[in-house]
């Protein structure tokens, strides 16, 4: 059989044996008194490590606790697990900072519930919920027991077996992992070695090709030097030959120049002699004007025949052995002046 208190609490149902001490205490109160009381619906709360737990307390009679001074205190250290006053959270123990929360939604109904998150075995112990409202003071105690299911060793040999199996499995897994890692590294190393060998072979081929090209280049350089030497030798020989030829041509030109100068000198002398003879002929010719050849052939109309006719008349001074013959040369003696 369960009874429900007058306050609006979601889990404030108690069996009648639990409620009996509170009823006796209430009966001992003086009639008409309104003494402040704090009631814990569950005096013992259990939880596992890592869970969130709610420690519940309730004002009796129910009243608004927004303006009350509410303190949750750990008996073992006598420190404040949570301290609430006039709507504000005050100082608390270092190990509970950020892990506690006063559920304010129930304050108006007199609920003083405290939530502790991520409990550990060190959180186990008794907690007091103390409330002071004006001149009234009341408190209640709640025991919290935090258990670690993994720390309860019921069968040591099973644990030992599990540890051994775990070690063996871990060793096997580590061995397989190391073997596979080593095999992968070996394969990778073999691949690298094969790649290095291939690159070495390629480098050897390139080196041989470079040597062959170097030898070919050296041969080409030698041929070029030999051809340059031959060309230089031929060019020098050709230049010497042309120089000799030019020297000969220059010598011939000098000789020809001298011959031309000599001819010019002779020509000048001849021209001078010709002019002298021409003057002599003009002064000493006898009967030249009456010569039928000279008259018939004018120097302008037919100069060749005129000069030919003129040549056939000889000068008297040139042939003194024939003083009486006009225009008669030695080859024409006996013709008595008959012109040729």
TrEMBL record:
Residue ranges of every copy of the Ig-like domain listed in the record: 31-147
Residues in the signal sequence: 1-34
**Any idea where this protein resides?**
Membrane
Q: What biological-process GO terms show up in the record?
A: regulation of leukocyte cell-cell adhesion; regulation of T cell activation
Q: Name one Pfam family in it.
A: V-set
Coiled-coil regions listed? 207-266
Q: Where does it sit, as one GO cellular component term? A: membrane
Instruction: Offer an example of a GO molecular function term for this protein.
Output: protein phosphatase binding
Predominant subcellular localization, coarse grouping: membrane
UniProt xrefs under PROSITE patterns: IG_LIKE (PS50835)
Locate the transmembrane regions by residue number: 159-179
Q: Which UniProt keywords apply?
A: Coiled coil, Disulfide bond, Glycoprotein, Immunoglobulin domain, Membrane, Signal, Transmembrane, Transmembrane helix
Origin superkingdom:
Eukaryota
- What is this protein identified as? BG antigen
